[in-house]
Amino acid sequence: MTRQGLISRAPFLRQDFAASLVVFLVALPLCVGVAVASGVPAELGLVTGIVGGLVTGVLRGSSLQVSGPAAGMTVLVFEAVQEFGLPVLGAIVLATGLLQTVMGVLRLGRYFRAISLAVVEGMLAGIGLVLVAGQLYPAMAAKAPDAGLDKMLGLPRGLAGAVGDGRALASLALCAGTVAVMVGWKHLPAKVRTVPGPLAAVGLATLAVPVFGLQVAMVEVQGLLGAVQPPPLSAFAEFADVAVLGTIVAFTLIASAESLFSAAAVDRLHDGPRTEYDRELTAQGIGNTVCGLLGALPLTAVIVRSAANVQAGARTKASRVLHGVWLLLFAALLPGALAHIPLPSLAGVLIYSGAKLVPVKSLAGLWREQRGEALILAVTAVSIVAVGMFEGVLIGLALAIVKTAWEASHIKVTVIDKGAGPVDAYLSGNATFLRLPKILDSLEALPKDRPVRLDLSGLLHLDHACRTALENWAERHSADGTEPVRLTSGAGAGEPAGTPAG
């Protein structure tokens, strides 16, 4: 085929080719860093990135979104590896992928958009806090505690111990330098910024180690084929454990929500085809199924890589497929290069990524405008740190449901008392059991020695508990010799208390 014929069939090949190189350079240090932070061989991060490009990348859903191992799943994956072991991780990821695929086929992807944004942001904030705290330990050449709260509480003692340790100080300085490069990279000239910040930061840290003779920990390499270990059949026997099933549910919900929220964010960055949410969920599921079969990390759509893809000028899904090709070539031809990457620099990349998950600026604005949403966000984040990922998300979802139910049951009680004659009381809004105490307090304060007319025609909803309570109140309210309470509902027909209009 001639060059012109190739261009006519792939009119955006040049833009997609250039964008794929940018995404590859962004993805490379993140794939390795997420794997190391998750407690698995570094090569498995590359395997997940390759699957994200070559498998999920070719499927329909979101055309410009890029998938791979995500910092947002790091804490959950680390906990799973520590509790169940690496072989079971593959089985968990496989089950997660199958569940996502089924949900996509059943067209459930669109319903993830109904998840409270405050819960999702709180989840990411909690992950970010635990991730930052956890990565400060390898930055200090120390071992991190397992629990999120212990990570937080142990930091002062860890920092104090690092002060008198030359190797720990060198490691901490290298991590701090990596973070400083990433923070300042966006302020450099555009020509310099053609090299992605994470790659530049890790590259400079890698050069600094031999130049300054630093004694720091390096990435351990065991080869791509050695790292890929499909889950044995015995790993699936662990599905009898409720904790494993809970982890599968957590993986499924969090990976799906993160991917689909990322898709919505990426759609705002370009004017191309919009995301087909059900197809995207299916694509993520197929990708995770393959990752599980290979014993690799779970994949999600990653906003950092996706935004880099759009900003680099990508026009079609060819860019994300090609980025998977470059990751595969690197893993196959240059695996030994990973051994020259210092661990403190990867910790710095993840500290920077984790900090960006904590919405400090938006939280202040949210507190001013919607304190209930801000409270859900904060409680979700704190619960994830204090209790755990799955439990924290459940607490956040429960709070969001309670808040919604409370707001949906808004009720207004208006009393008009002219001092003589009947007392008129009007109820408007939604009368549910949640607001029953308020309703009864207002009605029981009405005088018992005068006729009362209770108008329910302004109610949008009246649940069974409220209706029963109002009828009981009406029957017992009036004093002897006083006209019974009259209830008005529906089209405004008045009925005695014993036969309320319905």
TrEMBL record:
Q: Does the keyword Transmembrane apply?
A: yes
Q: Which GO terms describe its cellular component?
A: membrane
Q: Which residues form the SLC26A/SulP transporter domain?
A: 13-380
Q: Which UniProt keywords apply?
A: Membrane, Transmembrane, Transmembrane helix
Q: State the compartments where it is located.
A: Membrane
GO annotation (BP), single: transmembrane transport
What is the topology of this protein in the membrane according to its UniProt annotation? Multi-pass membrane protein
* Bias-annotated ranges (Gly residues): 491-502
Instruction: Please verify whether the record's keywords include Transmembrane.
Output: yes
Membrane-crossing segments per the record: 17-37, 84-106, 118-137, 168-185, 197-219, 239-261, 325-355, 375-402
Record region (Disordered): 477-502
Stated name of the protein: SulP family inorganic anion transporter
Q: What is the lineage of its organism?
A: Bacteria, Bacillati, Actinomycetota, Actinomycetes, Kitasatosporales
